[in-house]
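Dear support,

We are seeing what looks like truncated structure output for some complexes. This example has two components. We would appreciate it if you could run it in full and send us the complete token output so we can diff it against ours.
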Amino acid sequence: MQLFPCPFCGPRSESEFHFGGDAGNHRPEGFRAVTDGAWAAYLYERNNLRGAASEIWMHMACGEVFRMERDTVNHRVAEALALGQGGGDDGMAH
Amino acid sequence: MTRHYSALSLFKEGLFGQKGWQQAWRSPEPKPRYDILIIGGGGHGLATAYYLARTHNIRNVAIIEKGWLGGGNTGRNTTVVRSNYFFPESTALYDMALRLYETLGRDLNYNIMLSQRGIVTLAHSEAEMEMAARTVNAMQINGTDAELFDIEDVRRVLPLLNVSPGARYPVFGGVWQGRAGTARHDAVAWGYARAADRLGVDIIQSCEVEEFIVEGGRCRGVKTSRGEIRAERTGMVVAGHSSHLAAKAGFRLPITSYALQACVSEPVKPVLDTVVLSPGTGTYASQSDKGELVLGGALDRVPSYGQRGNLPVLEDVVAGLLEMFPSFRQLRLMRQWAGIVDVTPDSSPILGESPLPGLFLNCGWGTGGFKAIPAGGTLLAHLLATGNHHDVSRPFDLDRFTRGRLIDEAAGSGIAH
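Here is the complete output from our reference environment:
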């Protein structure tokens, strides 16, 4: 059982967390001006990085949505930051 | 030297100390140029090479594999073959694979130990029985075999299953596919490798792709740890590492990589002669020829490239098995492992040309790639040989995500794969 750090609650069991996709995956603005390709890229395409990754996660117990810097091979967590902290481009903060 | 495998050749070799067997495949040095290059020496890659040589008579073909042959998901799955899907496109694809599996042992002259012992997907409520009837109807209309089981049928094929009304997930019946079953996973890889090698295909192991050679906007081959290899067309068949290679080729895919675990118990005498899946517990199981119970379940819900697996899912899978078969409580778990699977948003595979012209994709099989190996190989071979889709692969092109024509089998058949 791995512990993930929730910025609000502290270390909690991995089974309490839900993966929310890539950090920085902005919803394309412009409504009808958005092409099919741009919309499909936003909805479906993923970075799916091997190694260091920047991801959005939700701690389902408290509802905190946050950014986690994590290695997808050895599962080490480098950092967990509440959205808007750390100067990163979360993609969900607007 | 003995090339052909048969009871007679086994007997003859037995008389002379088993010394005359020919090596099953060569280990050639890579040539600088091939007509077609395949990245990934798993089941789908090896099958692709075999069908290129046999069906399309293209024999100047190489497979490059960064590790060893069949050492990824082909050697890590739970060996189940079936075609119990909901949508016509899916049945066309998976039933093509199952039909090819039915004659594969003879076609390859290699015993893949296919055992069509049937699979039962349990229904745990009246509502699930209605969905089971819908699935059976869909499968029959789409041209594959299916039967609706009531509780007595389930009891007949699974005498050890806990069907008491007090069970955590009471059993009402289920969906039966009698042509489903298991096949020896390593034998499928080795059989395709031996047959492809015999037709002239070069299988090059311990050869990792470092970057793609792109000239004039087209993929012209790859730079590898063993030098440059050029080809007019390249197929990428690397399952859970598809996104990693796609990044080197300059595009992203609608894929997330997860660890999928499986485990086996200590071997026991025959107790389970079908494959059983319980949507309630999320566990499925069969018994191997050695007598081990082979178990699997859901994905680890943490995106991962670590071929290990985490504890919570393993606990769920084992708890689910004991819920279904209380008498297995005394068994000990012998081995546990994980493979990295490539999950798409609609739980259907991706087959077709990639955004980089000249590079073709076979990926996105998620948790269900083994059962599809003969079809995945046939269809990618068709794409690489002709440059065009086969009718069966057309709906699975990458363009379905832009066109909105998803084939959502997670919703359609309720099979988490």
